[in-house]
């Protein structure tokens, strides 16, 4: 289920889809009847919804010029806000979104207080958060109401909070009670562990996570140290368990400090963050996971051996790139620790999109391989019936850019400023690699004049560099059929 489908009611979702439609049309005079037909909508209802959108845009921006032209046409170029801004405006009246923000920010949240503040009955709240409840239930989380909040594995709760808030706000404003300065201090203190910290959008993502981290601890919602971390973090000087107490002004025991520090290091290995071969964190990850025998590195090596024989027999060295091993390690580590499905951004922005036809066989064969693996005692704790289809899909998608590697050619330099997750950016990278004249890399704001074009899922880039050539799109940035 896509993010907006889960967080918006049907009428709000329709307005968002209309906004998205006319934004990408870009015409100065476009027939409403064609929009209604394309979207299988009633013409009169489409006019009503477009009128509502126009009023909302006028309320957001006093300089807004109406999109309505008369004669049954609209000016698509008169949209006076970005898609991120309009989404966030709609979410301000979304019960699921506001409930998440409420129990995160409020000192003593209760369902009754929420109902009073947002003029909603308990039955209305229950009905409007039903889709979000189902999504959370699939990840073994649930809402609580006596004390409004969420229950389950605290690590997974924080992952869910980040996904749900980041995708709604995208740094348009600061929605937290903790100061940005406090979040910045935490990000700076642990930047060396996260490749995200060296990219434009990634830095904003880390600030959101730091805020959630701080506010959950502030409410005495702590994680526990997991013994499964030991092979990676125990007796490893790279992971500094002593610095958190100097970066955070909250009272914690030594045990809590250790557990919360371990959570930060767990986050640094949770997602397939690596997009550059010369990334120091990538080299460190491979070194640390290869240091002693463990199920994660064994799984990755076994799979790469299998994939070389099964899919890359003509050129097995293609799978020797460190970026492949590093991203497969991070995918595996998340499931090894959590041992069940957990929230990821790509689940909410890609939905149930199909892979390339050329990859379908790889995914099916990989699923078979993982199914057989799930029967082996070494892997039964985390390669489960619930997990292995998800791991197989992620593993397959890491291979995507290497299925048909093109020769080097003259390049147009493109900076990619998307959420820092390999599974999200892989398709755009793969698409651009098919264009022999393109060289794509993660956007670096210090190299702004280096790029011929920047591609982003957020208008943050356009606002900061209004004179640079850039392209904006919602995620998935592209779909490949």
TrEMBL record:
UniProt KW rRNA-binding keyword: no
What keywords are assigned to this protein?
Transcription, Transcription regulation
Key word Zinc-finger present: no
Pfam families reported in the protein's UniProt record = Mga
What positions does the domain Mga helix-turn-helix occupy?
83-164
Question: Looking at the record's lineage, which domain of life comes first?
Answer: Bacteria
The protein's name in its UniProt record: Mga helix-turn-helix domain-containing protein
Q: What is the lineage of its organism?
A: Bacteria, Bacillati, Bacillota, Bacilli, Lactobacillales
| Native source species | Enterococcus diestrammenae
């Amino acid at each position: 289920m896509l993010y907006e489908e889960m967080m918006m009611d049907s009428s709000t979702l329709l307005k968002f889809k209309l906004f998205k439609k006319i934004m990408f049309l870009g015409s100065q005079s476009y027939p409403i009847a064609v929009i209604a037909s394309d979207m299988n909508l009633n013409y009169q209802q489409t006019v009503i919804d477009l009128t509502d959108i126009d009023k909302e845009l006028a309320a957001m921006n006093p300089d807004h010029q109406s999109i309505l032209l008369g004669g049954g046409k609209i000016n698509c170029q008169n949209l006076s806000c970005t898609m991120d801004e309009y989404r966030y405006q709609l979410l301000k009246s979304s019960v699921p979104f506001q409930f998440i923000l409420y129990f995160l920010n409020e000192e003593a949240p209760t369902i009754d207080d929420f109902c009073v503040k947002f003029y909603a009955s308990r039955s209305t709240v229950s009905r409007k958060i039903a889709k979000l409840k189902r999504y959370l239930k699939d990840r073994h989380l649930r809402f609580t109401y006596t004390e409004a909040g969420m229950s389950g594995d605290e690590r997974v709760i924080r992952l869910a909070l980040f996904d749900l808030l980041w995708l709604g706000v995208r740094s348009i404003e600061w929605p937290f009670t903790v100061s940005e300065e406090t979040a910045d201090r935490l990000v700076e203190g642990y930047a060396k562990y996260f490749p995200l910290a060296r990219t434009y959008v990634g830095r904003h993502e880390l600030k959101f996570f730091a805020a959630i981290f701080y506010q959950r601890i502030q409410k005495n919602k702590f994680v526990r140290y997991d013994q499964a971390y030991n092979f990676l973090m125990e007796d490893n000087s790279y992971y500094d368990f002593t610095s958190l107490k100097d970066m955070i002004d909250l009272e914690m025991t030594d045990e809590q400090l250790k557990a919360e520090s371990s959570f930060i290091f767990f986050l640094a290995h949770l997602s397939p963050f690596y997009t550059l071969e010369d990334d120091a964190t990538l080299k460190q990850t491979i070194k640390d996971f290869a240091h002693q025998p463990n199920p994660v590195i064994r799984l990755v090596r076994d799979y790469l051996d299998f994939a070389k024989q099964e899919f890359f027999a003509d050129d097995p060295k293609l799978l020797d790139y460190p970026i492949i091993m590093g991203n497969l390690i991070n995918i595996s580590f998340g499931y090894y620790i959590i041992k069940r499905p957990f929230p990821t951004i790509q689940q909410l922005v890609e939905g149930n999109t199909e892979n390339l036809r050329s990859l379908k066989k790889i995914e099916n064969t990989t699923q078979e391989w993982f199914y057989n693996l799930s029967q082996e005692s070494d892997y039964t704790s985390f390669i489960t019936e619930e997990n292995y289809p998800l791991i197989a899909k992620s593993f397959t998608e890491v291979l995507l850019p290497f299925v048909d590697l093109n020769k080097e050619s003259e390049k147009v330099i493109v900076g990619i400023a998307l959420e820092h997750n390999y599974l999200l950016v892989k398709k755009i990278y793969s698409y651009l690699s098919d264009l022999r004249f393109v060289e794509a890399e993660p956007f670096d704001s210090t190299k702004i004049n280096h790029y011929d074009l920047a591609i982003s899922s957020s208008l943050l880039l356009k606002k900061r560099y209004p004179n640079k050539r850039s392209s904006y799109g919602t995620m998935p940035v592209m779909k490949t059929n």
